[in-house]
Structures are given as C-alpha cells and as structure tokens.
Amino acid sequence: MISVRQLSKHYGELKAVDNISFEVGEHENLILLGTSGCGKTTTLKMLNRLIEPTSGEIYVDGKNVKDQSPESLRRSIGYVLQNTGLFPHYTIAENIAVVPKLLKWDKSKIESRTNELIEKLRLPVDSLYKYPSQLSGGQQQRVGLARALIADPPVLLMDEPFGALDNITRTRVQAEFKALDELLRKTIIMVTHDVQEAFELGDRICLMDKGHIVQIGTPQELLFKPANDFVKQFLDAQRVQLEFKTVTIGNIWDRLPVGGLDNIATTLNENTSVWASLTAFDHQKQQQLTIKNADAIKTITYEQLMAAYHQYQQRPQV
Amino acid sequence: MNEHQQTLWEFMQQQSDKLLTQTMEHIGLTFIALLLAIIVGLPLGIFIARKQKLSGIVLGIAGVLQTIPSIALLGFMIPVLGIGPKPAIAALLIYALLPVIRNTFTGITGVDATIKEAAQAMGMSKGQILARVELPLAMPVILAGIRTAAVINVGVATLASLIAAGGLGEFIFGGISLNNTNMILAGAIPAALLAIIFDFLLSLLQKLNAKKLKVAVQVLPVILILLSIVYLVPSAYGTKLKAGFTPEFMGRQDGDLGLKQKYGLKIHTLVISDAVMYKAAYQKELDVISGYSTDGRLKAYDLVVLNDNKAIFPPYYAAPIVREDALKKFPDLEKTLNMLSGYITDSVMTGLNYRTDYLHESPEKVAKDFLVAHHLYKEDQHGSGDIVRIGSKIFGEQYILGEMYSMLIKGYTDYRVSTKTGLGGTKICFDALTNNQIDLYPEYTGTGLLVMLQPKQKIIDSLSTDKDKTYQYVKAEFEKRYQLRWLKPIGFNNAYAIMMRKQQADDLNIKTISDLKRYLDSN
Fold it and tell me: Does the model's ipTM exceed the 0.85 cut?
C-alpha cells in the first residue's frame, strides 16, 4: 500500500532522515517509534508532503506522491495530530466537515456521514454545535479522529494521537481505537515515543534512531530477536510488562498441562496475551481459567500459567 | 458654573451648522484615512507574516513614520500634495498604518502552528488557509489594531484644520487663538466623544463570537465607506480666488467678520495654520491670505499687503506687558525693558523676522546682532538675583523680542532670567501671565483690545485706528482689570493684513481690499 524508497531529509548538515526504506501492507498498522529527534515525525510528514524530502521516493497505492498536487494528495490521506489541531472558531460539525467541504460533497452526504461517525466514536450528538474548547480532551481527540476519517481515506497518518491525553483517558481511547471497525480497513502509520502504546497498537513497529531505521518487525521480533543492543536497551526498562503483553496463550500452549472441561463461563482464546490472562484471574476472582485454541480446551491455574510462561522465556533462542 | 455650561450650550446651538459640518468632516477624514490604512496595511501585514525577514524593515519604517510629530508631518505633505484634504488624509493614513500592519502581523503569526499545520494537512490551499483559518483567528487582534488606529485618527484629525482640511480642529484652534473657551470646548468635546464612541463600538466588535464576527467583518467595510463618503459631500462654494485664513482671523471682528461686514467680501475661504499659510500662497495653493504686516515671510515669498482702505484693522503696536507685582519685586525691570523702545520700526522688524523665518538664523543670534549694532548689548553679568520669567507666543518675532529682553536683563541687572518661549497662542500666553507662571511677554495693543478686553463696538469705533488712544485705553483697562502694566511701545505696528502674491496683485491691478472685492464681484 505504501512504499518508501531511499527517503532522506537533510537540514544543512543535519540528516533528520537518512536513506530509509520500508513497505506498509494494506490494512497494516505500522508504528514509527523512537525518542524525540529520531526522525519519525519528519518521516510521517513526508508521506503527505507537509515536508518535502531531500531525496527518495514515496508511493501510495502505487502512485508517486510527487505526481499529485499536495492539496489533493492530503485530501485523500487522513491526518490526526497530537494536540488535535481542531479549528477553535469552527463548531465540532464544521471541524468534522472540513475535508468533505474541500471535496465539495453535498450537504446531506456530509450530514449523514458525520452522524455515522459520531455514533461510532460515541460522541454526544449535542456536541456537534459546540466549539472544541467546550469538549474534554478525550472528546476532542475523537473529533480529530472523526475529521480524519470522514472522507474514508484508505490511509491514515497519526502523529502522537494520544500524546496529549492523561493516562486514564489515554488507555480508554486506545481501547476504543483498537475496537473501531473503521480502522480495521485502514492502512495506518502512527508515530509515538511510547513503547507500551507501540506494542499495544502496532502490527509492526519501526524503531528509529538518528534518522535511521534500527529495526522493523513485529512486537515479538523486537522483543525476542532484537537486531542490536540499542533495540534491547530501548525496550529494557519496560521489558517485563512488554513480554507479558506480547506473549500469547498460543505461544505457550504446548507448555500448559493437557486436559480440562468447558464448564467455566469465561473462555479465553489463544490470541489473548499472558498479561490479559493474568488480569482475568484477578478480575474474576477465580482459581481456574478455561482457554482454547482451534483444536482443544484446557483448564489452567494461575501457577500453571506462570510456570509455562517462564519456561517459554528460557527456551533456547533460535 | 451653571451659567458657564449654558453659554457653551448656547454657543453650540448658535454654531450648530458649523459644528455639524465640522463633525462630519472630522468623521469623514478619520474614516477615509482608516479605510485606506486597512486597504494598505492589511495586505502588508499578511505579506510580512509570510516573509518574516521583511517584517523588521516594514514595521521599523511604519514605526519611524509614527514618531514624526503630526504637525511636522502635515508640513512635509504640503510641497507634495498641497493643502486641503489630500495631505491631511495622507498624514492620517501614515499614523493609522502602524497599528494596522503590526496587529495583522502579530495576529497572523500568533495563530497556533498546530492549527495551521492541521489546515494544511486537511488539504487546504494557501489561500484557503488564509481566508478560513488565519484571518478569522487573527481577527480580534486585527480589530484591536483598527480600533487603536481609529482613536489615533480622531485625535490627529483635529490638526487637519491647520492645513485647510476642516474638522473640529477649526473650533479648537480658533478658540485657543481667540481666548474663547466655549469655542475650544465646542470642538474638543465632540472630538473626545467621537473617540470614545468609536472606541466603544469597535470594542464591541472585538468581543463578538466567531459566527457574529464573520458577519460584522463583512459589514464593516460598507460602514467605513459610507462614513468616508460623508467627507466627499462638497462643502464650499467656489470663487475665482481662493483665500486661506488662520482660525484666529476667522473669528475676529478685525478679521474675516470685518471683511464681510465692512467690505462685503465674498471669497471661498479655507481655514489654515499660520505656519503653512504663507508657503501655500507662494505655491499658488492660495491667492489671498491673512497675515501680519511685519512677517518676514512677506519679504521671503514676495507677497504684497493690500491697503486697508476702510480701516478695519486696528493698530497692533507691540509692547511688553508685565505683572505689577513683578515690577515691584524687580525695581530695575521697567527701566531695562524700556531701553528697547523706539528702536524697532515696521521695516526693521520685517527685516529681523526675515532673518529668522526665511534665512533660518537663530532668534538669539538675530537679537544679539541687533543689540550690538545699536550699542545696547552688554555681556552677561551672571547675576545672582531672583529669576525673571519671560514668555513668548509661538512665532519668530516673539522669540526675537524674548531673546532681546533676556539679554538686556542679564546685561544690565543682577537678575537671572528663565525664558518660556513658544507658549502657543494669545490665550495660553495670557493665562500663563495672569496665573503667575511668567512675569512678562510682548503683546500687541490690538490683541489686548479685541481679544482680552472685548469692549463694546462703540468704544472700538471711537478708538479705531488711532494708535495712541488705543494704547492709553488698553493700558488703563489692563491695570484696572488684571493688575498688568503695559510698558512703552517698542515702535513697530504688527497689524493684521490681507496679502497676495505681488505678481498676481499687479496682474489683476489689485491694490486695496476694495479692489479685491471689485475683482471678485466682476465676471
């Protein structure tokens, strides 16, 4: 869907982005991760030509972005900003309708699409006639998302979309974000400096440093097959939690005892992370948990789960 | 106090036609200039917000223009744009420009970068970003600039009357010259009210929310244009010759009023400041001007005085007037001041004025040269006595006389001297004297008679053109009423005069004011 080839952006001596290449598949969710100044935001902004590259090519859906006018390119790519970037002098309805108006949609089409989105994003209907400052931070962020989604662009660029939210709101909005069906059909590139967020939301993660890509791969690959010490150290601080979140029941299935009955209401499938499974014990105050994969069902205890997980961690690296 | 307010009200009612015209002219001038300032300043502000490298230069130039004293700016305009509305509007435009440019620049650069980036990322073109995002968000700041500019313009527009562009300044400056408080207030109060009203209305505009503001901003230009049109309504009738009279001359019996009554003179008249009047006549902007018979510019600009054949201008013999308590405090003062008496005739004074007004020599040098030539000069004694405070009005002749008195006192007595020169018009000087801010200043018998004493017409007629009778009457009345003493006349008569360019007067064969009237009435 998106192909980036030998892309560079130099500011005089400074190489903000230095000769990077990567591909993003259709409906994939790629996270650009790194500390500030690593070139992740510059990379993102070159995709919709907010920044013009010094050299290199970008193809979106097979078309070189340079062959389109920046305006029409941008109207076909959704963009979500860290501080929402909502227009303070526009009502929520007007803010959401910015792109359709530029695309000259008729009024009824804009209206029905707006209503569809605020329902999906669970925004109150009366908020449409309010101004951004009258909404909470979480609501503003949802409006920003609605504005990016309204014209149903196949590609969505997100620049630290949850960065301005407090921790509790962020966790909630992230969860909603994951559950939103609109987003499943999108190819998304998201910038973040938050490792947890990257692991939570990314299909693949592109870890950047000093304008280079250090490693690009799935969360598991980064965690268990780090390309070098930088990757390892970058993740070290939160390694325990990340591993719990990354390893799934499926990964440790073989190390769990066989046998069990489907007599407990809650059943977790093999894609559930170990972290989520441990939380499930906690929440449901149960001694036992039922898990299943395509072929079988197992009933396990907390201790059995932990033991299997530790065995998995100490397995010989391939 | 009650009686005073009533007379002001009466004055305003009596002069309501003039007041209305002046107010309309004032509003018109203010808003034409404001409209032009917006037309020029808004795009310029947007431009420097785009090219920020140029912002320093543009704002710097606009800032420097702002610091030029307004009366000087009007002066600069005359050689280029002549007199009348054009230079006045240009000057007002220049004053209004800085707030408009600066606030547009500040407003636009102050728009949150994230919001601009969002607009860009949504696919808006540069024009769309400007029109839909930057200008609406900058509008409160831009309106604040327009508000500042409007208030500045209302104030500066009072000076427009000095270059024949009309406005409430006609009353204000006329009143100051004529010692007529009601006239000053009749100009000053409406001017202040205009400033307050416009400031208030524009402040309302600033407080509107985004929706209403959009409508208001679209209506504003229409209102501005309508208010500007007010000024373009023709106000004066045309005649073959154009006259320019000072505000003071316009209101005096021995001025425009006398010309109308005694000569029946009808001429298209503009009100103009003494400072630019002579030059305007020289540059053929004006044909007939009021002036002073000893003015140096008479010689400099080759003007000729028309003979006052019906004697409407009373004698204006100059003499120092001194507070009586000052004469007691400084026993040697009277003797010293009287030393100058008899030395300066009309032609001598014109010559001295020519040197300051036209050759731009300093009044101090001119005064010293004169005293030395007449063996009156003595070196400064550096005395240690009390300080004699000498005042003067704001024109060359008064400065020269002030300097001469200062040198004489320093040379012949033990007193020290402080000079407070350039005290504006007659009223300011006279008030300074009666309120014991100065001890003396040179005054003219005619002014004393007609401006300060304002006796009945019968008395004026009886004194009329006799210089000694006038002097004696004024001297006696001043002692009685104000405890001020007129010392010996200096010798010259600086009367009002009607003058024209010598060339034109010769061509049209005009020698007297009656000749002028005949020429104007003939077709």
Answer: no
